[in-house]
Amino acid sequence: MLTLLAVASEDGWAFVRTDESILLVRPPYSHSNCRKVGEHAVEEGVTRHGFSACERDFADWRELIRFLNDLVRKTRDARGEQIVRQGLGAQMMQFASDDVLDKFLGRVETELVPSGSWEPAERLLIDMLKLPQVRQNSSLLARVSKLLGWTVEARKDTEARRQELIEDDDISAQYPALGQRYDVHELAEYNRRVREKASVLFAGI
Amino acid sequence: MVCRDACYVEAIFLNDVELSSVDRVRISQAEYDRLFDLAFSDYTQSHDDATHSLKADFVCILRASHESHLTLERI
How many CB atoms lie within 10 A of CB A101? Predict the structure, then answer.
């Protein structure tokens, strides 16, 4: 059982009593973003920092976080503010310093590329290429261009390999007897060579 | 720009509380990193509305600082 003790409706910060302690939670809502606080912090939050006191129970975190998100949305709506859900990362990058952009490139290299997250990597790198601070910094520009090249090539390579898998599977599905008698990968290779040479009489070449 | 004790931004007013009087905007390095991490994760994961609002607020602060030629000082 969780009890919401006080909340700041405009930004979704909240004091929450759990079975063990009182936590200050704030977006993005995650375990690592919760801070353990004392009773006095709740009182200070209400008297000094614009939190509204309340006493409301929630069965679990999912229910509580849904409530907090709804509250932020309703509060912003009431102020005539539409919640923007797209393109904020790119907007933030417009004001990012070189060291932040450098860190992002490191994360593309060490997190996105190894995990095959080509699509987000490409979008991020393309947005970076548009930034004046990147275009004016030859070392950043070179790094972004190089990484983008790698990413595009790696994505194409992955897509081509997946296409081969589909083609291999197609042969054994379409011709089960052939699939039982021959290796499907060899058949697929033969198929490709027929297609390339535009002739079935290339054997031995 | 709204600044409170608990906010991640501290504004140093030299004289009158007007934008023209603001010398610089300070933000803790940890908070700056935390907020810019959201810019990165904007490309890699979906965010909820409270997080979108947080990012939008930070964009407003960054834009206002930039347009007013204020130094964003990380401490």
Answer: 20
Chain A interface residues facing chain B, Cβ-Cβ under 8 Å? Answer: 10-12, 27-29, 45, 48-50, 65, 68-69, 72-73, 76, 83-85, 88-96, 100, 103-104, 107, 112, 117, 120-121, 123-124
B65: closest CA of chain A, how far (Å): 10
Residue B4 has its nearest CB partner, among A49, A90, A117, at A49
Share of chain A above pLDDT 90, in %: 65
Segment A29-40, tens digit of pLDDT: 999 889 999 999
Looking from the CA of B50 toward its CB, the CA atoms found within 13 Å total 23
- Under 8 Å CB-to-CB from B42, ≥6 apart: which residues? A88, A89, A90, A92, B55
Mean pLDDT computed over A137-151: 94
C-alpha to C-alpha distance for A101 and B40, rounded to whole angstroms: 10
- The residues, ordered by sequence, that sit 6+ positions from A155 with a Cβ below 8 Å of its Cβ are A118, A119, A122
How much is the pLDDT for A205? Answer: 44
Q: What is the side-by-side order of every strand in the sheet holding A35-37?
A: A35-37, A22-25, A13-17, A2-8, A52-58
Give me the mean pLDDT over the A133-154 stretch: 93
CB B51 to CB A27 under 8 A? yes
Mean pLDDT, rounded, for A45-68: 94
- Measured CA to CA, the distance from residue A63 to residue B6 in angstroms comes to 26
CA gap B9, B26 in Å, rounded = 6
Q: ipTM greater than 0.95, yes or no?
A: no
Report the predicted TM-score, pTM, of the whole model to 2 decimal places: 0.77
